[in-house]
Amino acid sequence: MVRRTLSFFDERLSVSRFVRSSLDKVFPDHYAFLLGEIALYCFIVLVLTGIFLTFFFNASSTEVVYHGAYHPLVGADVSDAYRSTLELSFSVRAGLVMRQVHHWAALVFIAAIVAHLLRIFFSGAFRKPRELNWMIGVTMLILAIFNGFAGYSLPDDLLSGTGLRIAFSIAESIPLIGTWIAFLLFGGEYPSERIIGRLFAIHTIIVPALLSGLIAAHLAMVWRQKHTQFPGDGHTEDTVEGPKLWPTYAMKSLGLFFAVAAVLCLLGGLFQINPIWLYGPYHAYQVSSPAQPDWYMGWLEGALRLFPPWEIRAFGFEIPNPFFPAVFLGGVTFLGLYAWPFIESWLTRDREVHHLLDRPRDHPFRSSVGAATLSFYSVLFFAASNDLVAKWLKVPVADVTNAFRVAVLVVPLVVFLLTHRLLRALARSGAPRFSSMPRQALRKGFRPAEPSA
Amino acid sequence: MTEETEPREERLGQRPAPQPELQPEPTGGKPGGRAIALAFIVSLLASIALGVVYALGGQPQLEGTLLFFSFGGIAAGFITWGGTLLPQGPYVQERHPLEQGPLQQEETTETFEEGAEDLERRRLLIRLMTGAFVALGAALVFPVRSLGSRPGGSLFLTAWRRGARAVDEHNKPVRPEDLDVGGVLTVFPEGNAGSADSQTLLIKLGSGEYRPPPGRENWAVGDIVAFSKVCTHAGCPVGLYEAETHRLYCPCHQSVFAVLDGAVPTSGPATRPLPQLPLAVDADGYLVAQGDYHEPIGPGFWNRDR
Predict the structure, then answer these.
(1) Are the beta carbons of A166 and B235 separated by less than 8 Å?
(2) Does the ipTM exceed 0.90?
(3) What is the pLDDT of residues A273-286, one digit of tens each?
(4) Full-prediction pTM beyond 0.90?
(5) Which chain A residues are closer than 8 Å to B70 by Cβ?
(6) How many domains are there within chain A?
(7) Structural domain containing residue A258
(8) Contacts of B188 in chain A (CB under 8 A)
(9) Beta-carbon separation of A289 and B10 below 8 A
(10) Nearest CB to B239: which of A165, A248, A289?
């Protein structure tokens, strides 16, 4: 059976050698290498649950009166998008689970991408020859964040509708072309009848198609270049070690897919997510409070909240306030990510091919830059909840905002210095891990730099 | 997937590294095998139960939990199978150098340049081709232009006109007496209930509390003032009013506006006051606008001041 199938394809496409070398392909085994796979499997779950949802969702802003199964909203003026989302949640069997699994999968998808990116960063896996794949990965992160936003905007509820209003304002804030961009994107002045339909096309066709292509390229490059590996255990730059794809690695990886699906189903079944019936339908003159976006938008939301009330106005031109925290910071963030492999190789003058990974301590500067950057975005993320923090601490929001404004500048600096010292001390001590590092070495690391050995 | 083009690598093949112990045979009798069998049985039973739950009308929490066991059973089975009963290696595979070498690169460059020279001989054709491409590119902009209306003046105007009655979200006109001290009401120009850019907040202050900025002395009716409800930062409705402190809060980014001083921002990211709508009362005693806002409402854009 296998032979007949193979000979059918081999006679036509000359594939048997490729298939054999693929089955024999060796994959290094390390738990940190699973993060990208988790992202991939979330994507598959997203596609499958997403297809189910498209069969019930109506991407329409047409106003209808709600007469569905959710009694508190009966008689309310809602859009058909909102109505159909309630319908698929309450009146379609397994609909709510599908919708919640879809939403959870999106949250975990982006979390897995970010964790994968951090693993790649701190282990130096982006270095030559893998810069291109790093850039593909960054592109997928941008697309994933964008598609997450587009997706949770579809139900046209009060929380996401407000998010769209902010998105319009951010587009509007771009100098010279901002108003045109906003009007072309939304199909006219906010709120537009067209935006839900457009987001639906973007969310269900355009971005998933792009992601599928990029995932294929991403994996093809890993295939071509072979996986990186941590040093030690006699690993060398010239070899890969681990189980073969067939059958061991395939079995484990397939198992991981089922594990990811299992966890997402449990989350979707037991943990309520995006209960749009509690937020209510969107009306441009209403707003919910507190209002926090999905986690991956938190850094942008936090930046919008923290940026001081500055804007540039001169000669009848204006660069509005949201431009700086949203467009400029967003642009710098992703340009910085794209450029990092080249910036680092320029700084270190390292033009060599690397297949063996770094441990974070092997490159304290890079690791400290990474840790500081991560802390910067973490502060922004928490600043997106400045209203909630103020409520918990019972202090004025303005004070919380000011504290965050200081923290967002100070914390990264402290984190940079601390990480640098700690990693240098760890590297010098030669200890296998932090916990086994002698205290003396730790103290030494904090002394002023001595001429390095 | 790309095809491996170098048979050299295949011949090198993989040599298993010396293995410390023999791999157990993949049979069901071994301890690993029993755990795997159990995992698959759990999955199977959960899937059957899932069918029953669905047939009985469905129940989200049960569905999610059963799906967890359906998928999780297979996951546990596969991962245990892959981790215990199958050959772990480690196998060692050679990496082949990625670079195909300067010679290859040189020859490829030459091949390309020879072809390019053949093309470049026809200068006129090249120029015409470039022109055609540029024109085509320009032509393709037109469909993009259809995506939305021209921003033009629409950001500078709202639906408020001289004499337009203020109505609530149900189109009901409003009289000054309808508001108590400390009360707020969202209003729209008559015929535009629910309008995004014309949404306006009526606020009734205590007598004599309002300190109108110069030139706006006649914009209030009694102690009722009207401000645009669209935040000047990022456009959210400024939905929270704290009557004791006379402050408006935007729930999106926590901008705060001091109503008594003409809704100037006092904290948060907003840079400009909420525009004030000049109010009057018509012959029938209803609140009306004296005209449109005197400046564009809402968040900034590059030519707002023009």
Answers:
(1) yes
(2) yes
(3) 999 999 999 999 99
(4) yes
(5) 262, 265
(6) 1
(7) 35-287
(8) 285
(9) no
(10) A289
